Structure prediction request, 84 residues.
Amino acid sequence: MARVGVEQSLTNVQQELEARGHEVVQLRQEQDAAGCDCCVVTGQDENMMGIQQTSIEGSVINAHGMNAQEVCEAVDSRLNGGTQ
Prediction:
């Protein structure tokens, strides 16, 4: 499965992603995003650690207003070539 970076405060998202078989990396600093296929952020800081600019090659998903299941579906969709 994919390597997904998750902002520290999104514990429920991290647990759901792990249950779906993804490798989860907690995002504590910008370098933590290296090697991630996708990153999930809270959206509280629109440009968290600069991740949305150039730090990763994969998608950045803003989890604001979404529950853990919706975030995981967005991750799966992005990883499978969707545009959600």
About this structure: The radius of gyration is 11 Å. The longest helix spans residues 68-79. The longest strand covers residues 3-7.
